[in-house]
Design brief:
signal, SBP, alpha+beta, sugar transport, single chain, 9-stranded mixed beta sheet, Multiple sugar transport system substrate-binding protein, D-Maltodextrin-Binding Protein, domain 2, two-stranded antiparallel sheet
Length: about 425
C-alpha cells in the first residue's frame, strides 16, 4: 500500500480524489516555467493538466516515452515530442491521429511549411506544432571585426574557423555523442547538396547516401574544426550549454546554436551579462559547408501529440490545441526565446518588441530553408548509427568516416549489427 501511494503521488493521473480527470503532459525542460503556466491556464472545469518533466536529452526523452507507450500506458495523455520522433511513434500506433476537422485547425495556412511537415505521417496528422527551432551563427562582433570577416555576406565554416583561430577565439558547436551532433552532421551534409539517407518511406530498406561528396565535405568541416586552434577544449562532449560562456571570455567565439541564445544573453536586473556585452552580440545565417552553396540550417522544435491509449482523448485533443495556440506560442517566444511555428505570431507587436527585427527575419528564413533530419519510422536507428560512427569528432576523417558510417548504418537497418 505504501508503494502504491507513493507511485500515485508521483503520477497525478492515478487519482485526484474526484471524477475530474487529470491529463499528464510530458514536457522537455525548455521553457519549463512558461509551460507550467500554460498547463494551468489551459486546465478547465472538465480536466486539469499536470506537468511531468522528461530528461534533458532528446534521445532520453524518446526512451522514457517509448517505454510507457509500448506498455499501452493510458496515463500518458499529452507529450512534447522532438519532431523527428513523430513518424516512429505514429508508425508504432503510440500516438493518436488527429480527426480531420482538428487537423485542419492546427495546420491551417498560418503554420510555417517546415513545422507543418513535421507532424504529418502516412497521409495523417499526428501532432500539433507548438514551437519551431532553428540554428543561426551567433558571434562576438568585436571578434569578427578584428579578424576582418565581413558578416554582412554569407560565410563558410572554413572562414569562421580561420577567423576565430587568427584572434585566439573559438568556434562553439554540439559534438557530444547525442542527438545534436546528428543535427550538425545532417546540416553539413545537406549544405553540400546531399542526404544521409533517401527513400525513407521504405523503412529499413532506405537508401544510405552519406558515402558521397557531400558526406566527405561534411567530414572535412568536422576535421578542420577538430584540428584547429579554434576548437573548444570540450569539443567531444560539447552540448548546447557548454559553449555559452565562451562568448564573452577573452576574444570571444563564433557559435552555432538555437534560438534561445538571444534571451540567454539579454541583460536583466542582477543578470550575468551587461548591456555592453549584449551590444557586442551578433547573428548571421548558418555557415555554408561549401562556398557558394546555400547553407541548410538545422530545423527542430516541439510538436504536441496525444497518447493513443488515453481514456480522455477528446479532452487531450482540446488541451493540445490550447497549449499550442498562437497565444501560447507568443508566451514561449517572449519568455524563453522558443520561436513560433505560426507566421502571424512573428507579426505580433509583443514579439517585435522582444526581439531585434532582423533576428526575427533570420529565424523565419532559416526555418523555411532549413534541413529537416530524415523523416523515418527508423529515425532512432539512423541517428544512433551516425552518432556512433562519427564520434569522436577528433577522429573524423573524410577519407574513411563517410564510407565506414554508410556500411554501419546499412548493417543496423538490416538488423545485422546492433547500436
Amino acid at each position: 500500500m505504501a508503494v502504491a501511494t507513493l507511485t500515485c503521488g508521483l503520477l497525478a493521473a492515478c487519482s485526484n480524489g474526484s471524477d475530474k480527470p487529470t491529463l499528464n503532459w510530458y514536457i522537455n525542460p525548455d521553457g519549463q516555467a512558461t509551460l507550467t503556466e500554460l498547463a494551468a491556464a489551459c486546465s478547465t472545469d472538465d480536466y486539469d493538466i499536470e506537468i511531468q518533466l522528461l530528461p534533458t536529452g532528446a534521445t532520453d526523452q524518446r526512451t522514457q516515452l517509448a517505454r510507457r507507450l509500448a506498455a499501452s500506458d493510458s496515463e500518458t495523455n499529452l507529450m512534447s515530442l522532438d519532431p523527428v520522433f513523430v513518424p516512429e511513434f505514429a508508425n508504432a500506433g503510440w500516438i493518436a491521429q488527429w480527426p480531420e476537422d482538428l487537423a485542419a485547425e492546427v495546420l491551417d495556412d498560418d503554420v510555417l511549411s517546415g513545422p507543418a511537415e513535421t507532424v504529418r505521417w502516412d497521409d495523417g496528422v499526428y501532432a500539433a506544432p507548438q514551437w519551431a527551432n532553428t540554428q543561426v551563427l551567433w558571434y562576438r562582433k568585436s571578434l569578427a571585426e578584428a579578424a576582418g570577416l565581413d558578416m554582412s555576406q554569407p560565410v563558410t565554416w572554413s572562414q569562421v574557423i580561420d577567423a576565430a583561430a587568427s584572434q585566439g577565439g573559438t568556434v562553439g558547436v554540439q559534438a557530444d555523442r547525442y542527438e545534436a551532433y546528428m543535427v550538425w552532421i545532417n546540416s553539413l551534409v545537406a549544405g553540400a547538396g546531399g542526404e544521409i539517407v533517401s527513400a525513407t518511406e521504405t523503412g529499413s530498406d532506405a537508401e544510405v547516401e552519406i558515402d558521397s561528396e557531400a558526406g566527405r565535405a561534411a567530414a572535412t568541416v568536422v576535421q578542420e574544426l577538430a584540428d584547429s586552434g579554434a576548437a573548444q577544449p570540450d569539443l567531444s562532449v560539447s552540448r548546447e550549454g557548454t559553449s555559452l560562456p565562451f562568448m564573452f571570455e577573452g576574444p570571444g567565439e563564433f557559435m552555432t546554436n538555437w534560438t534561445f541564445v538571444y534571451k540567454n544573453y539579454e541583460p536583466t536586473d542582477g543578470g550575468a551579462f551587461t548591456q555592453e556585452q549584449f551590444d557586442d552580440l551578433g547573428w548571421a545565417r548558418y555557415p555554408q559547408t561549401v562556398e557558394g552553396e546555400e547553407s541548410r540550417p538545422p530545423v527542430g522544435g516541439i510538436d504536441i501529440a496525444v497518447g493513443e491509449f488515453t481514456d480522455n482523448k477528446d479532452f487531450a485533443f482540446e488541451a493540445a490545441r490550447c497549449v499550442s495556440s498562437p497565444e501560447a506560442q507568443k508566451q514561449l517566444a517572449v519568455n524563453d526565446g522558443l520561436m513560433p511555428s505560426r507566421q502571424s505570431v512573428y507579426d505580433d507587436q509583443e514579439l517585435i518588441d522582444a526581439f531585434d527585427p532582423s533576428l526575427l527575419t533570420l529565424f523565419q528564413e532559416s526555418l523555411e530553408s532549413g534541413a529537416p533530419r530524415p523523416k523515418s519510422a527508423y529515425y532512432n536507428l539512423i541517428s544512433g548509427a551516425i552518432q556512433a560512427s562519427w564520434h569522436s569528432p577528433t577522429e573524423v576523417d573524410p577519407d574513411s568516416t563517410p564510407a565506414d558510417s554508410a556500411d554501419y548504418l546499412r548493417a543496423v537497418l538490416r538488423s545485422e549489427a546492433l547500436l
